[in-house]
Amino acid sequence: MDPQASVIDVPASVNGRSCNLSVNAQGLTFRYKRSQAEITITRENVKTSVTRGDMLAVNLVEPMHVVPGTAKATRNVLLHRQRFLDDSVWRDTVDSLALYLGSLNYEKCNTITTACGSRDLQISACASAPIVVWESKACVVTSDVRAVILQRTSGGMSTYDVHVLPCADAVLSINMLDHKSLPVWRSTFSALQIVDTGPSQVSLQDAEAAQHEEDFRYYLCGTDISESEEESEDELEEEFVPNYYESEDSESMNSGSDSDSCSNSMSECSNTSNITSEYDSDDSDDSDDSHNDNGDSDVDYES
Known about the structure:
Strand content: 25-35%
Helix content: 10-25%
CATH topology of the domain at 1-105: PH-domain like
Shape: elongated
Number of helices: 6
Mean pLDDT: 74
CATH class of the domain at 1-105: Mainly Beta
CATH architecture of the domain at 1-105: Roll
Low-confidence stretches: 1-5, 228-303
Radius of gyration: 20 Å
CATH superfamily of the domain at 1-105: Pleckstrin-homology domain (PH domain)/Phosphotyrosine-binding domain (PTB)
Distance between the termini: 42 Å
Order of helices and strands: EEEEEEEHEEEEEEEEHEHHHH
Structural class: alpha+beta
Largest sheet: 8 strands, mixed
Number of strands: 16
């Protein structure tokens, strides 16, 4: 088979913009109808890719402009299946992505949905993509997690917040998570990676500063990392930490879905999203492209 030839060529959307997606041994190519633009992501520039039902998240090594007319390059690309596409064709697309890009399948990972329903968070023990945050027209794949800051975990709060500190990428903030999901963090990350500030809240600015500190724990709460190493592993084992990824009863984590499928709650919620939009308004001709996955006319995603 000619490695240059398109193995898959299907309608899809990229960060909310309709296009045709081609998948082959060289990588991904997006073709936009009106502007005739063609943008290719090579295999070498794909750091991680994750599939989940009708969506695919791609995390890039180097940021790119993947939608014509956008002002900022992005490291995170959300591919969405067009709703009229046949199931078997999309399955072939997912299989090709797994073959050529090594995509990870998160379809059976349990999902934590924020209290307002606007974001779905998936946490996996997979080192290359432990955290994926999904929105309707945006996604963030976070790898190489250095620390996780849990906030408002006590003091009578109904929900808690999280700052995720990657080794290199920007700090990821996730707000309004149900307390029932707290054990997942401790079952996925080590005690040395987790900082629980109890009822206190850590600002994004402080989290960004801590990200670059050698001893982030001491910077945040005055506790030396060497001291935390003395915390007994036996003590951690004695604490019951349910594994939601193997449990048959995941309703406490993800209301409305069973343990073998991920929640697809993608409703809009104002003033709660912390994914900063990487796209400005686009006045290019692509705004008249074929309908996107939601059946609406093409528009850029704005938070």
